[in-house]
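Escalation from tier 1.

The customer reports that the assembly of two entities below gives different structure tokens on two consecutive runs. Tier 1 could not reproduce it. I'm attaching the input and our single run for tier 2 to review.
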Amino acid sequence: MVTFSLIDWIWLFAFLGLMVGCGLLFYHLGKRSESDFFLAGRGLPWWLPASSVYASHTATDTPMWVAGVIYRYGLAGLWYTFFAAWCAVSAFVSTKIFRRSLAYTQAEWQSLRFSGLGSELLRGWVAGWQVYMNMFILGWVGIAMGKVCNLAFGWPLWIGLITFSLVCAVYVLAAGFWGVVMADFQQGIIAFSAIMIVSVWSVISVGGPSVIISRLAEIGKSDMLNPFAFTGFFSGDFPIMWFITMLITAIIGGIGMGTSFDWYTEAQRIQSARTIRDASYSIWAGTALVLMRNAIWAGPILAFFILYPNITQQGEYELAWFAMAFKVLPAGMLGFFFASILAIHLSTISTQLNLGAVYMTRDLYHHYINPKATEKQLVWVGRISTVIILIGSFAYGMMMSEEITKYLLFALWIMAAGVWLPNILQVVWWRFNSWAYLSSWIANLIMSWLIFKVLPDFGIIPVLKDYHQFWILMGLCALIYIPVTFLTKPENMDHLVKYYVMSRPLGWWGPVRKEAEKKGLI
Amino acid sequence: MPIIKRKWLPGEAEEWTKEDLFACILSVLVYVAITIGTALSFFLMPVGFIILGIGIILGIVMFYIIDPKLKTVSEEYEKKQKTYLENLEKIERWE
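Tier 1 run:
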């Protein structure tokens, strides 16, 4: 349990005041139009969306799952966080293509890339799925905050889950994406400073880096300092095959759209950038910061490991970074640390609230329900959507009390396995059509639950390793969508030509390019 | 013809070229170097600082290669963006 001094409370309330004040400050910009409420008017210089990429991907649960993998595997566990490297390729491939499309959301992009009934079904499906997933993410990030508050103050889980999300909702409702991105900039600075301070302090508190290194050697765990300490090619907890799978999915995945769940968040930042160049650099730089942050976290987690090397409960060692901070920081700094936890928390909550609202407003309300809506109406629907998503997230949060990592890996990787290749094919292959993409989604949803949960629970198949699940799902779903591609007609050629001229995609677009040249469009 | 092209005409910059491929490869290497280099540097290991330094140099090379092309693509696209946005709203409103 943590006790706050007066200065700690001052830190906390000053920060909360700053965040809410920020929302009120940008209220007039946010309410101008749909484009302002959801994309900050499409005019941001690269460093603002970059700080937003960094801040929104530093959530309350992030230090937990980073701690979980570092505690188990040492520095090699950093590769679990290397999924973010999809941005290395995306920054110069899919980011460019998506920015050129000008689509507000990935769902809207579907109707630019595909045509006819299939495209409309896809748009509705992707939008609905995203609204659901936003609530899911908000729920798991919220319950992570509940756990931190429980650790620090002994509060029941629901207090941490609900209280700070409500504060966050104030500036998201007032200023939309303007509030999100401006708050993210401040939160990014606060969070990065806190991570550095806590990490350095923790390492010094156990005697410094040399003590950690020598202590690891004494207990026979020197391998924890080796980033390439694998357990065999196929064998053990951390095989090379897992590493290869991760590298392929991360790097090649950057060519596609939606190969990582984070794509949907980045898509909003990509469109908020003022130029294609700004969009590319924002994604690249924001992710570089994310990777540095993960590496810095390894320090205090290994410091925690040498103090408590025999913890077997995942839920306990996942709290390593928080536990170290509460243990070593002096009175007066605890408030700053807690404010930084709030920064971490609010940046993700605000992002997901506004992101869910854009799908609900732009793709569901504006496109299907009221195509003639005025800008004022759209901003208001954006606010109402934000409230609905917030309430939904509380319900999900209360349902999640198990280990964070288990949900995270399933949601980020396994549930995306069957659509991983289709997410690339839709970008690089002209012949891949809306029916193929739709069928891959349906197949993946059914098969991922079968492989991950239902069949192992009934003892029909053994519990498979995550990378096995990935390759199996990819193969099984391909058996569905590849025949569907060839059994259904290609997209309308005029529609494809329009898309090609606008987006200039990479890959196999020969017939479409020829048609565009014939029409004198390129 | 130079290995790395740094002066682009609008039409040329729209095409996917070896500069894009080089940028992607360097970008991945920079990310790997940042991850490992930062972690090892945090433990004051000399090899960590060396890897981090290599990562920074590779990052500068990546920027040197891709920036002229990105600038040209962006400038050219900005001229057409207004028309594209109008079309987007037409699709959205079922016009």
